[in-house]
Amino acid sequence: MKKDVFTMLHQIFSENEHGQGVDTQTQIPSEKKKQRRGATGIRGFVHWSQEEQRKAFLTWLPCELHDAPGIDWEQLPAEVMGYCVRTIGNSPDAAVLAVAAASMHGEMGLASLRAQFRNVAVLLRDFRTRGLIQHITDLREEHIWITWAKQQEKTEGARQHLVSYRAITNFHFPLYLRRLSRTDQLRMRQYALPSSPANLTRDYFPYQKLKAVQQAERKATTDILVPLYPVLRQIVRLRKQLTERLLLAFREACRNVEAGEEELPYHFQHTDVIPEVTRDARTVAEVQIQGLEVTLHLIIWDKPTWVKHHADLYSDEVKRTADHGIRAYASSQNCFFVEVENPARDVLWFGDLIEHRTFQYFAKWDGSSPEPADYQLRWQYARQLGFSRGCACGSSGLLDPGDQWFVSATGRSDALIFEPESLYRGILLGSALAMLSLSNGSRMSELLQVSMNKERRVTRTETILLLGKDGQPQIGKDGQPLTKQVKLHFQHLLPKGARTEEERQLFPLSKEAMRLLREVQTLLEETYGEVPVVAPARNNIKREDLKSERYLFQWRTWSNQQQTCISPADAQILLRFLFHGLDLYTAQGKPIRVSVHVLRHVMATHARRYRHVPPEVVAHFFLHHHLQELTGRAPTLPEVSEYYTLLTEEQRFAVISTDLDEQEELDHALLQMSPTTRDLEQKNADLQAVYEIWHSLHPTAFGNCGCPGLCPRETDRSLCLGCSYHIEDPEKLGAALVWRADYAKQAEVFEAQGNAIDARQARIKVQFLDDMINVMRMQLEEESAGRYIPVFKVLPSPHRQLEVCNENEG
Length: 810
What we know:
About 50% of the residues lie in helices and about 10% in strands. By secondary structure, it is an alpha+beta fold.
């Protein structure tokens, strides 16, 4: 039966997905087929036309079930049909599983249907693999179930398999039978799954025990990541900026080639500082992000030039195709890309992924050519890093071009090549996803709802209370609470468990998240003229509750001739690529795989433990429920009511505004990368601009003010710590060192007293002073070497004139 299905599929689709052993780069797939990796062959079942899906499924379905009463097989979702054809195949349980799927259809959402159906199919396959049953009726024997349960690891996955099985036998299938006539009931009873023992789940897979294990595993992860919360945010920002600078250098080099100023292959260099996290830190206060300067030696190529200079790797037919500029070498298919001559370890943070050629979709080899010798090794390497199907998105043009030519080219040569435009697009979307998750705790289904539709964007100007360090409103001299106006931005999204428009809730957006979303918006508008209206991804669990909108997380993803936003799997790949190389492990030595779920819990836990955000605010704006996760115990109904009403709406907005600002402060406090000469030159230029406006310098405790207008800070103006306008004066290094020592002692005292809030504020000031001290020391070094003269030393200053007068009087 399954063989017939595959025969039909091979008649419909040619197998051209892998092709390292053949000259697949001479083929040009259609636009939509090119834009979905893995969409050919049986793995791309959901992307076939409905008629092709129907033919394949009915070929798989046992003939005696084609006219099954009360079942319209063509109404089954394509995902379920594809799973039957692709995975269940010619299993002896195919008939009972098909009826089980039909009985569940219409009783639940697609995501639940897929999960429960898969659970039951895996359970039956496990019984047969272990040799416990020969026929489905063997499951009527209780001892078989007991034997299976004793052989299982006590995991939540095994428990869910049983729960799904019991849902079919005790509810869905009996409900299906009730809709049939007595005669039809007698016919269909033969496809009933035998019931499992009543207490099997309770005795062998107790919910509370398994939940405790899950919580312990989650805690092992959050214990490591929560203290690193600001580090994770800063890594997102620095890696995005690092790739952006490389992209700008690449574009400039490409313009030189296009202008005829340079010829391909064009050699150029790009020097930058790669951020690295200190690995010997013993406390959170010691964690720093340091910079390693690397000069990349790059070569720009295009496809025809590459083939011409690597002629020994290509057939005569390919070389002729490249010379004539046709097929894969036509102008519409050609593009610039770079080769890196450095060792893989110098290629930003992802050189090993290029070296091991993980930028492709891995699956069971079904190409017409022999499987490459290193195919399984490369796939295994990708899996070890958390990329189960390779470091490649279904959407072509995110991280890599999605062009089969590059897969073939890297397979023929050991050169390190990549395409910077698609790489940066993937990192931009990944950065926006990560920063949203780290700032408002969104789930995957909520992240992928972020939209430019007018009704989804909510901006509120609130008059909020100014809160003190104790979280209470500050009182003015007139006895009234101090207030200020702030502008808060939200997305109106459908949270977990909600299905209607009335249930949408507000998700706050931080300043950094807003900046990234605006850049994504600009990218889409420059490409399409506007943000396109697209459908939710097929495997988004909220797809049935959402409509087509101007979703921001999209890039050339197609399903059944319809453009969609990126899939959850693609979003996961983008996140893991962004955090690749951090080498994070639990205390038990288990590697930590970054996911939206992990980032969400890290954000919420950090908000409670370190930023001391009230739990009702976290619940209201971030988690939207899950009170037990915040309080550590299951609250009673009266407590739930009090939990959400403990603070007024005005107070909640005040807290969330303060917290979003505090997240930005924590980011800045980690910037321990050394200043450059360019930074010092910019400070000189800023100070010169201020002097030309005011004809005077504005001295501060540790230097001069470089702001051309009034002070932009509303509070904490005394030392100008953390102000981007501040210009350091190295002659005040001694004062900075004294203040740094005082704040460090203050932090230690607060920590000893258990005063976490004030201790954190003192630590932040220590970090700001460290930034100033680093700049001052570099100013002294550069000035002594004759490479830099502080402009405030040559501009007239009352402070310096006073010093000169004192010297003359003496």
